[in-house]
UniProtKB/TrEMBL annotation:
Enzyme type, top EC level: transferase
Protein name: Riboflavin synthase
Pathway of action: Cofactor biosynthesis; riboflavin biosynthesis; riboflavin from 2-hydroxy-3-oxobutyl phosphate and 5-amino-6-(D-ribitylamino)uracil: step 2/2
NCBIfam families: PRK09289.1 (NF006767), ribE (TIGR00187)
Function field: Catalyzes the dismutation of two molecules of 6,7-dimethyl-8-ribityllumazine, resulting in the formation of riboflavin and 5-amino-6-(D-ribitylamino)uracil.
PANTHER family: RIBOFLAVIN SYNTHASE (PTHR21098:SF12), RIBOFLAVIN SYNTHASE ALPHA CHAIN (PTHR21098)
Reaction(s) catalysed by this chain's protein: 2 6,7-dimethyl-8-(1-D-ribityl)lumazine + H(+) = 5-amino-6-(D-ribitylamino)uracil + riboflavin
GO molecular function per UniProt: riboflavin synthase activity
Biological source species: Coralloluteibacterium thermophilum
UniProt entry tagged with the keyword Zinc: no
Entry EC number(s): 2.5.1.9
Keywords: Repeat, Riboflavin biosynthesis, Transferase
Pfam families tied to this protein: Lum_binding (PF00677)
Domain Lumazine-binding span(s) in chain numbering: 1-97, 98-194
Length: 200
């Protein structure tokens, strides 16, 4: 489980094909490699990956065919900035929102506009996910916990404050770029429960 509060901006180093899937190496930037433990979870652009190896600069993770099909990780090239977050400790503050690291779909950056000292970003979301996205609700974009500022016909808008722009990989994105989207965990389970309770 994660919070969507990014701990460091790392870099995608390389990805080695292995029998149809990938083994990737991610440089961790300011995230201390020495603190990583084999088998622990790290969210990379919002995707929960398992650490299978480390070196002086980063860690390795195996990426399944399922993950490649449902996320943007397979499109990343060497040097691409990525958002990193280690799994939430039980005694830590929950400053963002509950994030599973299980991407629900791929969205797209539609527009970026200056907005005071921050920026207003508009995203397109797959039609199947839009009903879960509510104004002033939470959404996770490339691993970052964000508050939905407004809804649009094909997606949503968020207001990014200077801190978010300075401490995430959003500065490497532009209109037309794909992003990983995870809807609010609570919305997903409420729908599941209501569906199970409906008369048949």
């Amino acid at each position: 489980m994660f919070t969507g509060l990014i701990e460091a901006v790392g870099a995608w180093r390389e990805a080695e094909p292995r029998g149809g899937d990938l083994r990737a190496w991610i440089d961790t930037g300011t995230l201390p490699v020495a603190e990583l433990v084999l088998g622990e979870s790290v969210a990379v652009n919002g995707v929960c990956l398992t650490v299978v190896g480390t070196d002086a600069a980063g860690f390795a993770a195996d990426i399944s065919v399922e993950t490649l099909d449902r996320t943007t990780l397979g499109t990343l090239g060497p040097g691409r900035a990525v958002n990193l977050e280690r799994a939430l400790r039980a005694d830590a503050r929950l400053g963002g929102h509950l994030v599973a690291g299980h991407v629900d779909g791929i969205g797209e950056v539609v527009a970026i506009a200056e907005d005071g000292r921050g920026q207003r970003w508009r995203f397109r979301a797959p039609e199947a996910l839009r009903r879960y996205i509510a104004e002033k609700g939470s959404v996770c974009v490339d691993g970052v916990s964000l508050t939905v500022a407004s809804l649009t016909g094909d997606g949503f808008e968020v207001a990014l404050v200077p801190h978010t722009l300075a401490h995430t990989a959003f500065h490497r994105l532009a209109a037309g770029d794909p992003v990983n989207l995870e809807i609010d965990l609570v919305a997903r389970y409420v729908e599941r429960l209501l569906g199970a309770a409906a008369p048949r």
